[in-house]
Structure prediction request, 76 residues.
Amino acid sequence: MSRLACAACGAEDQIATVVLPAGTNAATEALAGLVERVTFHNEENGFCVLRVKARGQRDLISVLGHAALISAGEFV
Prediction:
């Protein structure tokens, strides 16, 4: 998990990304939580930006990934 600061207002947020090295199936970090908001979803390729209430985290986490269908209220 890393911190990201907004260039315009200076607000900080945590961002989580799951990286899969070429030729592997295991994620480097596991994240589970409730999707609070779908900020962006591209229906053509499934790319999405989500705000997730993750287990063990006080604040919402921004998650980047791919999902065919995703909506607020789903558990990921």
About this structure: The chain has no helices and five strands. Strands lie at 2-5, 12-16, 33-41, 47-54, 61-66. The two ends are 17 Å apart (CA to CA).
